[in-house]
Design brief:
single chain, 349 residues, mainly beta, 5-stranded mixed beta sheet, 3 helices
């Protein structure tokens, strides 16, 4: 019996190694793996807090917390919640919107515009392809996360697609560098596309038209895109489908539109999540994912193991001892001269 169990384990391991050794065909090119990240379970999204989590974003006003919303957004369910990475509820925001009550919220993002922190909620889903030009980005100044329940009102941007047709989408991202929204449509049998729209607060009620950036892959492997996010420093963009997570790295001062034209890398540490739709960068080193499920569902934390902060710390103190990386509770830290720093070189208590 022990021999049988051992052989079965070896067989499963071999199957995993074969899968891991086979990155996907993206657009006629085989992608390379990015092996910089490790994956761990940080907590659980409780169905009593937010069932069917459809969007996730990291707070910029109150670091260390995540904003989340659900798939159903009518009546009392028209809300977003602030949770800790372990899934515990911190605060609830009941969201009212001026001039629109579109539901089917599919993603959430945070970003800075004119030195103000904003929350963006994308009412961009359209499974039945019926809305055509009635897609909305709700925006409001991001509140500080305290406790209890608040009721806040959001403004909106209404938009349509450049082909004047209906599109289903589940990915809303915001780039702080360009102050630009990036949106990905969700295509089941075909090729997904990346679109963009500048953020402005003076659009009024007029309907804006997205600009198409590029196709994402060839539709044979990487389609049905369910979420994405851009790091606060604008250096990295991730877009996910349920089986795969792809990573683009911005080069120098190029636009993110230029970045998207280059081949991405496939994040090796990512494991397929059933109904996996949500992803949020806290900084350029760490992101979280979770799934759209009516049950309690895990929250996963991905931590980059190559820290540019090490070089920054060394150059800042050339006479100091060599830096070394350590993991503490799943977080990458840097130890130097008996003191601890995060990956960006900020001293930790």
């Amino acid at each position: 019996m022990k021999a049988k169990i051992f052989c079965t384990a070896l067989s499963l391991l071999a199957s995993f190694m074969i899968w891991a050794a086979s990155p996907i065909n993206y657009d006629g090119n085989t992608l390379t793996f990015n092996n910089d990240f490790t994956r761990s379970e940080s907590g659980t999204m409780q169905k009593s807090v937010m069932p069917e989590t459809s969007g996730l974003a990291a707070s910029r006003v109150t670091p260390g917390y995540l904003w989340a919303h659900g798939d159903e957004n009518t009546g009392n369910k028209r809300k977003i919640v602030a949770v800790q990475p372990d899934g515990s509820l911190a605060m609830t925001v009941k969201l009212t919107t001026t001039g629109s009550d579109r539901d089917d919220w599919e993603d959430i993002a945070t970003g800075v515009y004119n030195n103000t922190n904003y929350l963006f909620v994308g009412a961009i889903g359209d499974n039945d392809l019926e809305y055509k030009d009635a897609y909305y980005i709700y925006y409001l100044e991001e509140p500080a996360i305290t406790s209890g329940t608040q009721t806040l009102t959001a403004n909106y941007i209404r938009f349509g697609f450049p082909d004047s047709k209906a599109h289903n989408a589940e990915t809303l991202m915001y780039d702080n560098i360009e102050q630009m929204f990036y949106i990905v449509d969700k295509v089941k049998n075909g090729v997904c596309h990346l679109y963009k729209l500048p953020f402005r607060t003076d659009y009024g009620t007029s309907v804006q038209t997205l600009t198409e950036v590029c196709a994402l892959g060839n539709g044979s492997k990487f389609n049905y895109c369910t979420g994405g996010d851009i790091t606060p420093d604008g250096k990295y963009m991730v877009i996910k489908s349920k089986p795969y997570l792809l990573l683009w790295q911005r080069q120098g001062s190029e636009s993110l539109s230029q970045t998207a034209l280059r081949l991405p890398q496939q994040v090796a540490a990512y494991q397929e999540e059933e109904q996996g739709e949500s992803i949020a960068w806290t900084d350029s080193m760490t992101f979280y994912t979770t799934s759209d499920s009516k049950s309690n569902t895990p929250i996963y934390k991905y931590v980059r193991q190559s820290a540019t902060g090490i070089e920054n710390l060394s150059s800042a103190n050339p006479n100091g001892n060599n830096c070394r990386k350590i993991l503490r509770n799943g977080t990458l830290l840097i130890l130097r001269d008996g003191e601890t720093y995060n990956a960006q070189g900020i001293k930790q208590p």
